[in-house]
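Structure tokens please, single chain.
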Amino acid sequence: MTFLEYTNIVLQAANEVPLGSTQFASARGLQEFTKESVNRAYHDIVGEYRWPWLINGTDLTLGTPQLSGERTITPVDQWTQIPVPNPYKDAIDWSTIYYRNLEGGKQDLSLVTWDQFEASQDYYLELTGDPQCVVQSADGRSLGLFPAPPTGEEGTLYYKIWARPSRFTFSTDVIPMPTENYNVLVDGALHHLWSFRGNVDQAQLAYSRYEKGLKKMKQKYTNQTTRVYCV
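Here you go.
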């Protein structure tokens, strides 16, 4: 669904006049605030979790579609820069990186922050065998594997990249979330709109519906598991 479609659903739910495509860019007053409310509601939703529809689905190295959203890279040194052409648009999912050796054995890598690494460098440098931990560099653009992959026996590192949410501007902008959950975004936007208009009861009602819908979305789309640190 487009930005215009969502905005008009919210306007109609609030008994306001919907916008035409030619009027959209020049909207003023309550109609303009409704556009902002849709943006705010979307960012409220995507700020809760990393939803599957935000996974960037193109392999950055090979340029081929990847249904899983996973990328691969063969690290040859202890520190490797991850190819993210636009770090302002995309973000690495550091919590799901794993390693496969040449025999195909899978090793989930525990995430270690740069502060943790600096505090316990000797511990990580003394580790042996296949990589067990992934260290996020201070700038967030490189990773360190500890232990380092054996020379000449490098396996493959798998990771995901998530598209960062952006603001919607044009009437034709497509809002990237499942249309079956459109009511959650609408209720979130209505909460902001009713609050702006000072209608506390309607705002609370919309927020209650929003919370219930968001809870169902989390149950359906998100993975609640956590990773254990390698310390």
